[in-house]
Structure prediction request, 767 residues.
Amino acid sequence: MPRRILNFMPRSSLGGKVMSILETALLFTMLVFSLSVFYFVNQAESQAWRGRQSEAARNAAGTVSAFIQRARDSMLIVGAIEAGNLVSDPAELNTLLKENPALLEIILMDHDGHVYASAFRDKSVLANLITIPQSQWFLKARQGETYLGDVQISADNLPYLIMAVPSSERGVVAARVEMSVLWDVVKNIRFGVSGEVVVINHAGDIIAHTNPEFALIRQGILGRPEHDQILTAANHEWSGAYENFNNQQMVAASAIVPGTNWIVITELPNAEAFANSRSAVIVLGIASFILVFTTRLIVARSVRLTIAKPMEQLHDGADRIGQGDLKHRITSTGTDEIGRLAAAFNSMAADLEKNQENLQKAIAYEYEAQRARELDILLKASEATSSSLDFDTVMHTLAA
Amino acid sequence: MILSTHSTSPKKFTRWLAAALMLGLLAACGAPPTPATPTPPLADELTFYNWEGDMPQPVLDAFTAEYGIKINYLVYESQEEAIENMKAGEVYDVIVMESRFVPMLVQENLLAELDKRSLGNEKNLSANFRELAYDPGNRYSIPYNWGTTGLVVRSDLVAEPVTGWADLWDPRYYGRTGIWMGQRREVISLTLKSLGYSANSEVPAELEAALARLIEIKPYILTLEDFSLVNSADILANGQALITMGYASDYLYGHEQNPAITYILPAEGALLWNDTFVIPSNSSNKAAAELFLNFILRAEVSASIANENLYATPNEAAYPLIDPEVLNNPVIYPPNEALVKAELVLPLTPQGQQLYDEIWERFTNAP
Prediction:
């Protein structure tokens, strides 16, 4: 049915041409309108997600920073205690481990790396004279720096890192910090429906991820464009788009974790970040389709009633009149150009009819007059022949 | 009725516009995924450059059996020789290298950075072997084993208990003490320690003193390489040597032959060392080399190496699989108390390296 309705007027017909022009204008208007709406919705949404995600990244960075700070505070407490007291009462270190569940091991060393005291939750690892003097964490902390190592994965898939701070007696306090606590923190940071949080170090190694598998398999973003962009951004605060490890288009924002060289990245799938734009596109698309289709139906019917049908009637009427049916009149109630044209045709037909009647009357009159003249001549001839048989006299009488 | 001819251009145009309206906007919301990069095929053979006898053959055979990659085992006589060959452009795929050389090799771009995604078994390494100063994060090297350098002594034949490096200079033992000439840096360092200096001293006067001390015993010292030994056990067991610089394995193999062979951590302080695996930057078989390293890092493989070589492994996942007699042997895994004066042999500055090279040359040229 719709096909029949839509196709009742060929494109080369007047109605068809009118419809084509109308459709083109309508579609062009809808395209411009839709693009404008999409652009503004997209811009507004882009601004919105940048703001939301930057805030989420800063919040996540704050959470991570607080976690690190708690571990650092515990170590600073140990560093402030006189070494002799810890040697005589190492239980203080065990108490500290109980108070901070993230600490797996903590040791206090002198300037040469000799261990004053140590405590551990799982096993003694750091208090090893083979490795202490050559450990990066020992050498850095001995120089007065706070050391925060990369996240490592143990043989039993436990994430940890090594931290070290200088002690008050030119020594070093070092600790192994269990990072599954951080992983839990990161895992529980929520924004949006499917937003994810990634913590990386400067080298691009993933330290923590909403999906811990990425940290476990040593996935990194080194060499990816977003890594370079993040590192070169002022204060590492960046926002942009990239394709994640699952080939999913993401929008993301980053923030530095205070007190570390770590960077938090919050990422959100494009589909979610631009859900409103996508909805607007779909709604606009459907609305445009319905609008164009409905408008076309209405306009087609209107064109059919106001242009095509009267034109057909005009065409049929002209045909009949042309064929001599001067009594035929074109039915048209309109006052538009077609109506006036129909009226003109009707008027022409009426005039032709009237002229034809007058002509017929004139012909009839002439015929009667001719006939009277002929009868008169016959009468005169009869009378003449009855009064004289002389031919010349008769002809003279008839000629008179 | 109005007649017409068929015309398509306006229809095409409106269809195009409709398509642009529907598809053009939707296309703005997504992009197709990037195709994955294909993985290149692995090599058929790896060239492995190491000390003689430093890797059990069954381990190499197991790797070949599992992956079909043959191991071409090449032997060097000293680390310096290996480095000279690397610098000369010789191509190796995996090299066992002392940690002290790693910074210099990285500096000179002679090492390939490791792809940690191919080294999942690196997690088996103990936490204290992950962030060592010579290669933080093990980006260019994988710790292989570690140990002490001390004195292996035939205790039943020495005049009195041997306690320190200085005993190598005891005239009573002239002609029956030995050093590994392939360990030039350690020989200089132990001499420095015998004089009470740091094993890593770069002070010219101290190095001159060490040279003089070395030259003093040169006529009387045994060069262990001359015996074509992998360890000094045999010549200690048969009494040719009484005291040699040596390692845990020298002692353990020797002790099996003669229980009188003991191992001494010198009173002046033992030397500490780490061996690592590195992949040279000119290796074209990096993927296969990393596969090999990941194989070595397996707990059971590291344990079998540790049980055979009798060196301490940094692979903590291997500990439960190591023979308890090995794991609890204080010669192999010395306690902290025994290492208080021990000193790690550290990388030298370029100037220091030059000094050591000169000292060594003068020593070898001395009569």
